[in-house]
Amino acid sequence: MGMEALLQNSTNFVLIGLITHPAFPGLVFALVFSIFVVAITANAVMILLIHVDSRLHTPMYFLLSQLSIMDTIYICVTVPRMLQDLLSKDKTISFLGCAFQIFLYLTLMGGEFFLLGLMAYDRYVAVCNPLRYPLLMNRRICLFMVVGSWVGGSLDGFMLTPVTMTFPYCGSREINHFFCEIPAVLKLSCIDTSLYETLMYACCVLMLLIPLSIISVSYTHILLAVHRMSSAEGRHKAFATCSSHMMVVSLFYGAAFYTNVLPHSYHTPEKDKVVSAFYTVLTPMLNPLIYSLRNKDVAAALRRVLGRWVPSKRIQVASMIRKN
After folding, report:
1. Alpha helices in 168-295 (DSSP H)
2. Is 169 left (phi over 0), alpha (psi -120 to 50) or beta?
3. What is the mean pLDDT of residues 216-226?
4. Residue 15 phi, psi (nearest 5)
5. Which of 66, 104, 291, 324 shows a CA-CA span of 20 to 30 A to 50?
6. Distance between CA 24 and CA 14 in Å, rounded?
7. Model-level pTM greater than 0.70?
8. Strand partners, 174
9. Contacts of 123 (CB under 8 A, 6+ apart)
10. Strand, helix or coil at 15?
């Protein structure tokens, strides 16, 4: 039955796009492309800095580098396709391409859910148990956290993608979205998918609740520990350590809450596309900027790297001038 459904569905879909009939497609293209370039550059710089600067070889920055890797892949899943569709009249996406997009999107979104939760635990240990931090956040535990995040996210992709793609899609092939998001794809099915949507809703709520529980418990302990601190400098340092992560969590989980938790009555295709654009396009750009602009260690690492690079370039230029 599943194989027959796959064979029946193995034709192209059509992506309507973020804006159905943009008045100025060139302007929309330039805006989205600019965001894409900034996101890729900011995440690449973050990964590079954490890799080359020994002062950033700590569990917190190791987890942050994994977040940047996820964000880089995440934005590449949707935006290049969106840019292509803005310039081309042919907006078709193959059946396998749609399935692959759904799988990567679910895997990366789930992976970020878990990783952000584990990053909150890292901050809890750093603030509440600083003496035991090297033991509780050693290299093996950090690797386990990262692998667990990727595996946890991929379980969501492996469970939902095959089921979604085995439904018969015998009517219109036009997906009212800029990528293959499951709710938009299911609207094209010619059978009732309400039971599956209910189960998917429960699965997504569970995926949200597990890391949210870790975040809530971690920050409750952090706030209690900060309240007990007598030093104003210690309180400021603790808040500075956690504030960037709290901002990223608020952005990502706020959009995810709308998409995965709010009932259907709150959803319209236009709202869904705007919210999806926020957490698939804007969030991967904002995350590294929030961490870099609000983090003195990252800013200092950037100055050190630029300081080493600029003099070396000057020396090369000077030596070339002397040779000439």
Report:
1. 182-186, 194-228, 232-260, 269-277, 283-293
2. beta
3. 88
4. -95, 120
5. 104
6. 21
7. yes
8. 14
9. 60, 218, 219, 222, 241, 242, 245
10. strand
